[in-house]
């Protein structure tokens, strides 16, 4: 087993397009690291550089203590699960899983032992003789996983492995991947644009945007204390509401003329200066009474079963509030929102960075 | 739900397929049936009278040692051309598939030979390898080979194989390139991570995935060598020396046009037609039933 270390890794494509702009990151041995971000944020490119499928334009990639910049993918001791599974269509499931071992000259009985063991873990024993085209999407996904685990690599790389599955299967496979990674204890790097996958799978969550890392932390750290406005609106569903506001004084901001108390606020902000106020839809109490409150004009309500989403406007900005079903009548037109000072996030309108306590 | 247009009556459908049918009938079925009819006739030396002789033309054909020799020549010629043109085209296609500078120009130039008419291609190669005029015969002679495709049957065959292969590479190249581009990149990448070097990757992943293309091209190439190389043979060797490079299709021409034996020549073309129909049938069955994946 080995950790992975990235030191100011860059990828510059022809035409001077910088896809990855100097990313540094340490991934501990045996941990599950998820790279999450919107399309084109460089997360897949970064993963492919770790795999050796893309050349590294600058910086250093280390697997364990070894710098692998110039090492062939085959010699990096990694295994990768691709989005489209990338199974060999002309080989049986058994041969698909055995291929990597055969190429490395593993003895035949050892190959058989390992493939059968992996097949047992993934419950695909009955398909070993079939061709990939005779399998369903979920089964193909398992074979792709099997191909990765038989090799017993130092690092697993996952490139959006669940995005071709239907919603139900995705949840199921997500749980299985997590369980498998726990059982095997292999360092894993997982790329996804799905923030639910990112939150549920990761020990270490890396949020990327525009070829750079926005924030690194545990899922709860990233959710509780987003470092930038981008992270705040990207992680969490529905996304965090951002309202325009003004600094009133230490621990107080105003939104649309209504004063709000804030716990986590940087000291020395100039009163009267503009500030962005972030509130999660699930963190405001609709119809509740608190120390500070906001009024909201409701446009419409979305029913989600257990919860309802009230869409509307607060101080002229779009706002969403989540409430338990039955808590409020569906024809509510005006809402009073109670705001807990501990749940207010402040961001600099220029730099979009968090203006919390240092 | 599939949407279908419903046309009542037969007039419009018939009218629409009429041009296609007319061309097929006039240029294929009619001459083909004439050939079949002719193969049962024997003409006198001046073409003034003909009599019905049944299968006599076929019988006498299979009594000729020259016919068997033409079969062997055709077999050798077609297997050599098919093998070399497929192998060269595959090699070029794998190289062109890589991201190289000027790859597009490379591809365009490779396709050009296909636009050259067979007879012109033949003359071109004949000039280059002509025993006395050829620019390339000199270096061959210089290394001690008494190069003379006019007199030496092996040399003549070599020259034919060269020119026929050269012309066919473009066509095969295009299909192989398309075939290669249809293989998902991630499958190749997966194989690279699975520890297969470039050569091993080619033989265990790429080549098997190309097998439907390869099989299709094999059939097309054999048909090409059977028929379309006529121009090249006529221009380069004229079937010689001493009939040693006479293939089945060239013999049809030599016996019928030059020898005046229309009945025998027709019988040969009927046999050729049967061979090609069989090849095509095999191809269709194979491609439909046993595509590799």
Automatic annotation (TrEMBL), chain A:
* ABC transporter domain ranges (all copies): 4-235
One Pfam entry for this protein is ABC_tran
Extract the CDD domains matched here: ABC_MalK_N (cd03301)
> SUPFAM superfamilies of this UniProt entry?
MOP-like, P-loop containing nucleoside triphosphate hydrolases
Which residue windows are transmembrane per the record? none
Instruction: Alphabetically list the UniProt keywords.
Output: ATP-binding, Cell inner membrane, Cell membrane, Membrane, Nucleotide-binding, Sugar transport, Translocase, Transport
Alphabetized GO MF terms: ATP binding
Please give the superkingdom of this protein's source. Answer: Bacteria
Residue span of the signal peptide, if any?
Answer: none
Q: Record's family?
A: Belongs to the ABC transporter superfamily.
What is the protein name given in its UniProt record?
A: Sn-glycerol-3-phosphate import ATP-binding protein UgpC
TrEMBL record, chain B:
Which Gene3D superfamilies does this entry report, sorted A to Z?
MetI-like (1.10.3720.10)
Regions that span the bilayer? 12-32, 67-93, 105-128, 205-227, 266-287
Q: InterPro entries, alphabetically?
A: MetI-like (IPR000515), MetI-like_sf (IPR035906), UgpAE/MalFG_permease (IPR050809)
Domain of life, source organism: Bacteria
The protein's topology relative to the membrane is: Multi-pass membrane protein
Q: Where in the cell is it found?
A: Cell inner membrane; Cell membrane
One short Pfam family name for this protein?
BPD_transp_1
**Entry keywords, A to Z:** Cell inner membrane, Cell membrane, Membrane, Transmembrane, Transmembrane helix, Transport
The UniProt entry lists the main location of this chain as membrane
ABC transmembrane type-1 domain span = 71-283
Q: What does this protein do?
A: Part of the ABC transporter complex UgpBAEC involved in sn-glycerol-3-phosphate (G3P) import. Probably responsible for the translocation of the substrate across the membrane.
Q: Which family does it belong to?
A: Belongs to the binding-protein-dependent transport system permease family.
The annotated subunit structure for this chain is: The complex is composed of two ATP-binding proteins (UgpC), two transmembrane proteins (UgpA and UgpE) and a solute-binding protein (UgpB).
The protein's name in its UniProt record: sn-glycerol-3-phosphate transport system permease protein UgpA
What is the scientific name of the source organism? Microvirga terrestris
Annotated gene: ugpA
